[in-house]
Amino acid sequence: xxxxxxxxxxxxxGANGILKKVKKGSLLIDSGTIDPMVSKELAKEVEKMGAxxxxxxxxxxxxxARSGNLTFMVGGVEEEFAAAQELLGCMGSNVVRCGDVGxxxxxxxxxxxxxxxxxIGTAEAMNLGIRLGLDPKLLAKILNMSSGRCWSSDTYxxxxxxxxxxxxxxxxxxxxxxxxxxxxxxxxxxxxxSTKSPILLGSQAHQIYRMMCAKGYSKKDFxxxxxxx
Amino acid sequence: xxxxxxxxxxxxxGANGILKKVKKGSLLIDSGTIDPMVSKELAKEVEKMGAxxxxxxxxxxxxxARSGNLTFMVGGVEEEFAAAQELLGCMGSNVVRCGDVGxxxxxxxxxxxxxxxxxIGTAEAMNLGIRLGLDPKLLAKILNMSSGRCWSSDTYxxxxxxxxxxxxxxxxxxxxxxxxxxxxxxxxxxxxxSTKSPILLGSQAHQIYRMMCAKGYSKKDFxxxxxxx
Amino acid sequence: xxxxxxxxxxxxxGANGILKKVKKGSLLIDSGTIDPMVSKELAKEVEKMGAxxxxxxxxxxxxxARSGNLTFMVGGVEEEFAAAQELLGCMGSNVVRCGDVGxxxxxxxxxxxxxxxxxIGTAEAMNLGIRLGLDPKLLAKILNMSSGRCWSSDTYxxxxxxxxxxxxxxxxxxxxxxxxxxxxxxxxxxxxxSTKSPILLGSQAHQIYRMMCAKGYSKKDFxxxxxxx
Amino acid sequence: xxxxxxxxxxxxxGANGILKKVKKGSLLIDSGTIDPMVSKELAKEVEKMGAxxxxxxxxxxxxxARSGNLTFMVGGVEEEFAAAQELLGCMGSNVVRCGDVGxxxxxxxxxxxxxxxxxIGTAEAMNLGIRLGLDPKLLAKILNMSSGRCWSSDTYxxxxxxxxxxxxxxxxxxxxxxxxxxxxxxxxxxxxxSTKSPILLGSQAHQIYRMMCAKGYSKKDFxxxxxxx
Lengths: 229, 229, 229, 229
Description:
Four copies of one chain form a homotetramer. By secondary structure, chain A is mainly alpha-helical.
């Protein structure tokens, strides 16, 4: 589970890389969040060596990792999925096959794109409501039983004092860092550019998290966008 | 329940307006979605006549209205809320007091701001995923058990073929029109400008719905942003 | 030349307002930047008193005011324009009639909308170029002989060290404050909402200047967006 | 002068590529607009063969190419610049050295980023002004003597009827196609992501041109954004 596409390429194709020594029939599972194009490239190289490659990025964060409740989004051939599932099931309670190699990454990227957008949206709506004189707890309660409801509003609310046990209750420490979100949005941007998909709010979300990194929020949880606004 | 702030002002303050003839002690409830500043102004005028004004915008759409399951977000003095609740309970299953006059509007505006943002976000994420080769039903299923989950993805998915009984399953007919969403986002924009609240994604969502209105989507449901992208 | 629409309304329609005492035949010229709808309203009231109202917002800043080189954008009836021109010519080297009442404001708003967008664009392009290893002076020089050229790049460059005698050469002091730009963009936003004109970049520029005001840039020149980025 | 980074890589490194047969001491000049990182990679490979590589993207369009008045933005070692200048001077009236390999691309990308932003800004401001009742010719005239002035407003105005001899006077035929602008903004986006530079308006401009390509504007001049709005 390496941080960037470049690290993954090096680990596989570098001078002492995995591709140099991998045994026939091995199952190689990469759980980093990287460019799906790179996953596909690596899978081809691995196949040449007679082994099998799968991408299986995770979601759930540190908490879910500790309790073995991660979600794995797996891309790879169907025949080998049972084997992967057995291994990954030790760490995760959800192991979902998304399709062929690269689709695990694609699902992860789409999820985090939507997550970033709805988190910023939640921060904007809560902030506007507070400035209009609303009580934040009451506002969150009504949003959560209405059409504005989303994971960022009902499970991970970014406004201090609204929920317990979330980063906003702990000065935005822990959780999923702003830098990591900016990185994932960079991958979404790259995928959108290469597939010519318009992501109007997504590219704005990307830029907002980039700015936050430059303004001292890089190590805070990504819900600190409420504080930034 | 009139469409704009101007209509409401005329109904109350116009030549043959309500303010000319209202009896002392009357309870006046306005369920249109209008500028909260206007609600406050009207409440002051009504108070001068010895009557009581409340704002009580609704959510839920045509379906909920038919079945008496609307949500009413009520702004007004606490002492009169029980009376309002009795009346509104005939049409709605949720009648929530949000605070003093204007707060019903404020909550409605914040909800629809977040709704518009998460709907466009859902459309962008689903569209990107499809172009990356994912099956839309599978993608929606995984998003809905992950942190990208929102009402627009799990209850009102904008991609044809993913869900039944929603406007996207019926060529985006019925539902909540793009023009109405553009109008509500105009109110959010005005409130944000007057309270100096930054709404980076919200103002972009506003502009996107404005453009859609000009491009032939005005009568379609607001989830048609998927088709537009 | 009052700062907001509300101030202008009070100066005219307030308890001791101009409308109470204005003599027939007077020529009233308002040089504040306000909502063109308000200018039109005031003109109607003034006309009822037998006087004439014109809107004549200025551009050029403190320097041009000192040297009598302001530009006045005038909206008002053609017959009275010569009289206005004579007066305004004492302070301005350009006195342009833009059409009937309100058009002076409309031109001012459109100019500042485009100005804000091209200033932020210049800041983004210069910043990106510098991070790509370009010399800022050389980059500015080439932009200014190419299709990226604009007033913000060739006359008021936001990058310290590129030009002399501009706010960026003086720690962004003096010039046209970020708060004032945010205010003018608020007027542009209101005009765009009421005429249903899409301003995708304009509304984003508005939000960026709003954020800057909240982040300690309110008193700096609006070219400090380079520093903010 | 090939359309994409991938084409350039193939022309140099492909099975029958230039790198296979290039003679020592050759001067290789690439005038396509591609990723500056790719230019640098190619330069390294070329150097290994004992030859010299320069990037020299152009601006000016078909008209300037015909009349030999192109602008060349050159990146490459200083010692060889005189030789390049002699060749490129046959086609261009401006041949500017921007620094080492890759800087020609960097300048081109920054220019087109700013160009796209100011073109969309001009379209938004002109459109808003027209809807506010202004005469487009008069509005353009005043903008062009004010701080909103830019190449898109004074040399290439996007509103039909304002200027002669530009694409907007000819149903947006000829000129610089929307697809090409979307491509260059994709390069700007990639450069911004890899250097972690925030480009808030730039990424929005990118998405707008992407949407235009999907909506039937791909072959029209990029000033057709006025028509799109």
